[in-house]
Write a structure and sequence with these properties.
Layout: H1 17-29, H2 37-50, E1 54-58, H3 61-76, E2 81-84, H4 90-98, E3 102-105, H5 117-123, E4 128-134, H6 144-152, E5 156-160, E6 168-169, E7 172-173, E8 180-184, E9 197-201, H7 204-214, H8 224-229, H9 252-282, E10 301-305, H10 311-320, E11 325-327, E12 347-348, H11 353-361, E13 362-366, H12 373-384
Bound molecules: pyridoxal-5'-phosphate.
């Protein structure tokens, strides 16, 4: 077997032998592999786990991002601004650009790595249509003030929970607190379906739109009522396209894996949380920022934000210890500094000092269920000697 070059990878092998047996049994005994009953079963199980009415399984977390901004366009009209975080993932911004909106960056708080109430408030104007709030690295970023602000200004609030499965705010899981939310089941997240994602909502109209956007915009994906709404005498009811949709469907195989992984998710969340606690307790706070707001977190990865110009020394320690890491933390740091934005219009309200600090003085390393307490404390010791 090929030797892995890391002793501490971003993620452990999170598809077990048992998962593989379930998958091979399914393949041997089934003849339907495209979006079907298993996808539906996983969607229902996911809705129950999350505490929402509706979930729509898609091919990736990014697909769910793309569908959310497409829904904003259906409900709020074309053109306008969407408030976005610099710390998150490229598809939080590219979805906004690709649906014709202008991304408006506001800065994050260091404690939560999420955009703050004050910064969001300062960016709202008559053109604002929606807010994309990312729970980066699994820290909870939502609160009652943000929810109220969105309602007061009639803005759609989108939570990106692709790194935050099982994070909570006041006993509610994140992803159940906004108009719509996104999850990723990419290899390396809290659970995996290989590739896969979910769009969740409590709103029937959004649910119907999400189902149609997932599947070419076809009305036969939606309720009879919606089918009637779009029915035209000269258009085949089976090929009636209500919205300019995509093909972002999942296969049954991904859903079967989701159903076998879901029962392990709560354990993964608990273990990842414990790992983060040990990590932050053992790092020297005079060298590293350790004051994260961990209330309700569901750790995606272990953040390392250093004070002073010690990046090269830190990287050398991690390389010597064969620890895999990603500079800039979530999504590579400040999205507003990425080349893809050079040819597109975007705005920034206020400064992005904290996002730049995370970009220049931050990285993350993997957090997963197979890490041991000794492994974590030993690495902290080495890093504290920097
Ligand atoms: C915050 C965030 N949003 C969206 C995505 C996209 O998910 P996927 O890789 O499943 O497309 C990711 C991926 O890691 C992410 O971290």
């Amino acid at each position: 077997m090929a030797q892995n070059k890391f002793n501490w990878q971003l993620i452990n092998d999170n598809i077990t032998l048992e998962d593989k047996k379930v998958l091979s049994d399914f393949i041997l005994n089934s003849n339907r592999f495209t979006n079907g009953p298993k996808v539906k079963e996983f969607e229902e199980a996911w809705s129950k786990w999350l505490g929402v009415k509706y979930s729509v399984m898609v091919g990736s977390g990014a697909s769910s991002n793309y569908i959310t901004t497409s829904i904003v366009r259906e409900l709020k009209g074309q053109k306008g601004e969407i408030i976005v975080p610099p710390i998150g993932w490229v598809s939080d911004i590219s979805s906004v650009i690709n649906t014709g909106f202008t991304p408006v960056f506001v800065d994050v708080d260091l404690e939560t790595m999420a955009i703050s109430y004050e910064n969001i408030k300062n960016a709202i104007n008559d053109n604002t249509k929606a807010i994309v709030l990312v729970h980066a690295l699994g820290f909870n970023g939502i609160n009652d003030k943000i929810i109220k602000l969105a309602k007061e200004h009639n803005l759609l609030l989108i939570e990106d929970c692709c790194e935050a499965h099982g994070a909570v705010y006041k006993d509610n899981k994140v992803g159940s607190l906004s108009d719509m939310s996104c999850f990723s089941f990419y290899f390396g997240h809290h659970m995996t379906t290989i590739e896969g994602g979910m769009l969740c909502t409590n709103n029937k109209e959004i649910y119907e739109l999400a189902r149609m956007f997932r599947s070419h915009g076809m009305t036969r994906e939606a309720s009879e009522q919606t089918q009637n709404k779009y029915s035209r005498p000269d258009v085949n009811p089976l090929f009636t396209f209500a919205v300019p949709g995509y093909n972002m469907r999942s296969s049954e195989i991904n859903a079967v894996l989701g159903l076998t992984q879901l029962p392990r998710l709560d354990y993964a969340i608990k273990k990842r949380k414990e790992n983060l606690k040990i990590w932050l307790e053992n790092l020297n706070p005079s060298i590293y920022f350790t004051d994260f707001d961990c209330s309700g977190n569901s750790s995606f990865a272990l953040p390392l934000i250093w004070k002073g110009d010690i990046k090269d020394k830190i990287c050398k320690i991690l390389e010597d210890e064969k620890v895999e890491y990603r500079l800039g933390t979530a999504g590579g740091g400040n999205q507003a500094r990425q080349p893809y934005l050079e040819n597109y219009e975007f705005k920034t309200v206020g400064n992005l000092n904290t996002s730049n600090l995370i970009h220049d003085y931050g990285l993350y390393i993997g957090n997963h269920t197979e890490l041991t307490n000794i492994q974590i404390t030993n690495l902290c010791k080495k890093l504290n000697e920097v």
